[in-house]
Amino acid sequence: MKHGQTEQFLQEQGKAASRAYLMISGLYLAIYYGIGAFTPLIAQYYHSIHLTGTQIGLISSITPLISIVTQPMWGIICDRFQVRKRVLFLTLLAAGLVVLFFTRAQTFGQVIVLLTILSVFQSAVIPISDSLALAYGKKHNMPFGNLRMWGAVGFAVSALVTGLLIQLWGPKVLFFVFAAAFVLATLFLKKIPDDTEGARLHASIFSGIGSLLKIPRFTLFLFGAFFIYGAVNAHNLYFSLFYQHIGGSVAGVGLAFLLFAGSEAPCMKLAAMITRRWGLEYTLLTAGIISTARWFWYSTAPNTLIVLLLFFIQGLSIGFYLAAAAQYVRENTPGTLQVTALAVFMSFGQGLGAVFCDFLGGIVMQYFGILQTYLFLGLASGLGLIPVLLICFGPWKRQTAS
Predict the structure, then answer these.
(1) How far apart are alpha carbons 2 and 355 in whole angstroms?
(2) Total-model pTM
(3) Residue 91: inside a domain, yes or no?
(4) Are the C-beta atoms of 56 and 46 separated by less than 8 Å?
(5) How many distinct structural domains can be found in the chain?
(6) Which CATH number characterizes residue 316's domain?
(7) What is the pLDDT of residue 121?
(8) Rounded CA gap, 268 and 249, in Å?
(9) Alpha-carbon distance 4 to 219, whole Å?
(10) Beta carbons of 383 and 227 less than 8 angstroms apart
């Protein structure tokens, strides 16, 4: 190839990489805009149809319980047949359609049925989008946090805007926002290059999970995620009730999530530098310690102004944890099982761990109050630090630099 042709080829490659970056960033922005409308504000809808604390805890356990089964299965399908984009496209559309039926639901039973169906499709969205971003980041030597931070931006803006819309038109508006955001996400997805798919896997479709669970560093990480990430998911559900309990408003909940999730974006970008200096393991440990301390502090009923002023705690805990966790999974599992490994991680954190924290948190709230729910989350998150400590200092400590 001549010099001029080589230069033109490199320029075209650079433009293609830039387009892919923009499309993946847009995908994250849209997906988490939908999640930011749904997750932190759905409790307002549950209260509007007069559900009890125990019912809210039970309903909130459905999505993580379903994801325990469906996330690994979606991962196995994607890794076996390399159809990540097609599966993600279909599940985004299906979730966007199903969520609109919530506008007609008025009973506990109707919500259970709809949330079960929604959870089957929604459980595929995050692990598959993460795997596409990780594949792009690996190919172009880009930290995962630089892509994932756009999800935090979408979540932050949506929580504020949707909170204001709820004050104007009621809690059902969040379902329309969710549906529109997921449909928009499919438009970005269609323009992501197919070279993020990777190589086809020829192994048995059921052998992958067994192989992953034989890796001690990965298994310990999963047990840590069960408690730490499970508590984070429960916080997303119960925060709006907590914030109003300590004197805040519904609009204030949106502002709080704007600040909280907004702090995740720069921290996810900063996480790349921190992990290079400290390593992934110590970054995860630091994030877990900050997160645990935060839940204990919330249980003391702090002033709403102080909660807002210390918004950056979310970035230093959840932002660091999510950015480091995805890279930890990638570096400690086989490349041919990337989606499966991410799905198993989500199943433990957003699945089993969230079932545990959501359900028990709802019972604690009904009988003892929302402040004791956060005390419970602090205790649960503290238990999650034990396996992370074993990763950092135990016999499975990595001997070479991360």
Answers:
(1) 60
(2) 0.71
(3) yes
(4) yes
(5) 1
(6) 1.20.1250.20
(7) 94
(8) 29
(9) 51
(10) yes
